[in-house]
Structure formats: structure tokens, C-alpha cells
Amino acid sequence: MSPRLSLAYLAFILLCLLAASSAPTPLYPLYQQAWGFSPAMLTLIFGIYALSLLLALLTVGKLSDHLGRRPVIAVALVLEGLAMGLFLQAQNVAWLIAARVLQGFATGMATSALGAAMVDRDKTQGPLLNSVAPLLGMAAGALGCSVLVVYGPWPLRLVYALMAVLFVVQLALLPWLSESVSRAPGALASLVPALQVPQQARAALWQVLPVDIACWALGGFFLSLAPSLVSAATGLASHLLPGALVATLTVAGALAIYRLRQHNPAWVLRFGTLMLAFGVVLLLLAVHTGQAALFFVATLIAGVGFGSSFSGAVRSVIPLAHAHERAALMSAFYVLSYLAFCVPALLAGLLVKRFGLVVTSDGYATLLLVLCMLSALAMWRASDSARSNA
């Protein structure tokens, strides 16, 4: 494959993996109706995926720095295909949990290898695609599945069958992808769980961490409890609602990343932090007024903040690593991001039972606003320090 075609192919795999990860979101209400589980169980099913993904990032996330990108991507695609098979055969909650565990591990295994492979090929377009592809993937999976539920046959099966076919095709094309790094010793040692952040990237990572946590925690909320919250607050109960909400958030994020790709990463990060905070405030207002239109406006603004802050974070940190450090840094970055993705949502699912959706959402939003303020403070200090040293 040519370098340009290789980038497109790698980005498409990443997009499909994230599409598969968000596809169950519109199906959760149907699973709840069929099997009668609670909101806490719903967030467990969601969270177990992210925890399994974290396990993969901590263990095999660095493996492609030693074995090469292609072997790791190949194994991940096989595991993802098997996960689609489990979803297709699911008969109860236990099947869903098993499928999400396997899916999470496959996605975590592939994420750092794919991200590093894209940066290997292009240090400018690689980080951009690393930011855009996951958001477009989550939008495509959630909205596409919602449409299939409303208009297609076999609502609990069709999306997984289509995704399985895509993963088989991608695996068949993999031999035409050129390897971008040579083999290096230390493969077994790399399996020991550890976060490896190169010395030259540590200060930048600490600076972007609060807002990165905030944007991924918001994403976790939207893929788990937000559809239930909107239905409770507005009375809407359409099967298209979960997918439309996730798509609004993630497409707005992807568009923001693309439109701001030429801007300085530090500026993009500041802009994203501001928009994320503004969107969260509007979401709180929407919850307490019950206005469906305001929910989508708030989600749109929060999505712009999500995408731009995530893009600013990736562009500020990942290019600082050398070639054989890149997958390890991608792995560490995604570990921290996915911890933010699942842990707050899991805690929220437990708190809903005691305090209700609205009170829990108020606390969740307050936490996000505090993180945005911490990030703004860190950026202000870094800027002030840079001026002092100039």
C-alpha cells in the first residue's frame, strides 16, 4: 500500500473498532426490556468493556514496539471478530459481559498499535487521524445501530453481523500493509503492566491530563446514562435518541478537530476547555428545564469542546515520543483516558440507585467543571512560566 492508502486503511480500522464499541449503546434499552436489568448493571456492562481495554493497554499495549505493528493488529482483529460472534449469540447479561470483555481487550490491543502506526507514517496527519477516527467511529456505531433498530430486521443481531464482515475484510487486507518499525528485544518484559511515559513528554502529559479526563468522562456518561437521563427529563423515548445524542457529541468533536487542525495545539486545548465547560453548564440547564432542543444544543457545544480538547492533548503529547517509545506513550495516554471513560460512569451508575438520575448528573457535571478549571489553571501557569523564561 502507498503511505496515503496505509493511513486511510489504519484509520478505517480504528473507526470500525470504535463503531463496534458504541453500537451496543442504542441496544441497552432493548436488552433491559428483554432481560430486566438495572441502571447499575447497565453501567457495569459498559464499564467492563473499558476495564478490559485498560488491561490490554497495560499489558499488550506496548507489544507492537517490539513485535511490529502488523502482528498485533492482526490478533486484535481476530479477537474483535470473535466478540461480534458472542454478541450475535447473546442470550442473557452474562453473554453481553463476556462479549464486552473480549471486545475491550481487542480494542485496547489495537488502539496503541494503530495510533503508533499512523504517527510512524505521518507525524502531522497521524495525530489528526488518531483524534478524528475514534469520534467518527463512535458516531457511526451509535447512530448506525439506532437506524438499524428502527428500520432494519433483527435489531439485536444485524449490526454485529455487519461489523463482523468488516473486520474479516480488514484482516484479509492486512498483508498488504507495510511494517513501519523493526523488531526490538524486550517483548516479554513489555507485558508487565506499567505506564511508560518518555521523560520528554511527562510535563506536557500532566498539563493536559485534567481536561482529557473531563472530556472522556463526558464521553463515558453519554455512552451509558445520558440517554436514560434525557428520556427521564424530557419524556422522549425514541430508539433513535441514544444514537442521535452520541452522534451529536462525537460528530461535533470530529468537525472541531478537523477545522482546528492548523491551529497551535496549546490554543486548541484552551479553546476546547472553555467550550467543554460551557457545554456542561448548558447540559445542567437542560436537565432542569426538560427542554429537548437545549439538550442537543448543549451536546453540540460540549462535543466541540470534547473534540478540540482531545485533539489539543494528543497533538501536544504524542509527537514528543521517539519511534520505539510511541506505542508505549499511546498506551499510557489511552489508559488514563479510558480510566476517565469508565470509572466515573461506573460510580454514577451505583449512585443513581440511591440519589436518582438528576442529582447524580448534577454531581457528575460539577466534577467535570472542576476538572476544566484545574486544566485552565495548569495552562495559565505553563504560559506564565514560558513568558518568564523567554
From TrEMBL:
Localization of this protein: Cell membrane
Protein keywords: Cell membrane, Membrane, Transmembrane, Transmembrane helix, Transport
Domain of life: Bacteria
Listed InterPro entries: MFS, MFS_dom, MFS_trans_sf, MFS_Transporters, Sugar_transporter_CS
One family name in Pfam for this protein: MFS_1
Regions that span the bilayer: 38-60, 72-91, 97-119, 131-152, 158-177, 213-234, 240-260, 267-287, 293-315, 327-352, 364-382
Membrane topology per record: Multi-pass membrane protein
Domain Major facilitator superfamily (MFS) profile, chain residue ranges per copy: 4-390
Cell membrane among keywords: yes
The protein, known as: MFS transporter
Organism phylogeny: Bacteria, Pseudomonadati, Pseudomonadota, Gammaproteobacteria, Pseudomonadales
